[in-house]
Amino acid sequence: MQTVVKKWFRDKEYGFLENGSGPDIMVRKADLLNCQFLRIGVTVEFECHVDKSKLVAKNVKLSHQKNQQNGGRNTKQNPFGVMT
Predict the structure, then answer these.
(1) For the chain, what is the domain count?
(2) Does residue 78 lie within any of the structural domains?
(3) Which of 14, 20, 66, 83 has the largest CB neighbor count within 10 A?
């Protein structure tokens, strides 16, 4: 699946992904594959699982799509999210 990062709490090491009109999908730092934290608005690819009646993202990785918030133009030279 693909969606956009809605919130990220760096100090708590988790955040939430957009899910349209459904409940947000929780994502934890431990489930990130190619980064250490996420930025709001970044597109990610992931597997969605149900854990104790809530949606949880697993195997989350940054997508290499163009930045949708900037009219499809990526004005920065660095990739989406924070690569480490």
Answers:
(1) 1
(2) no
(3) 14
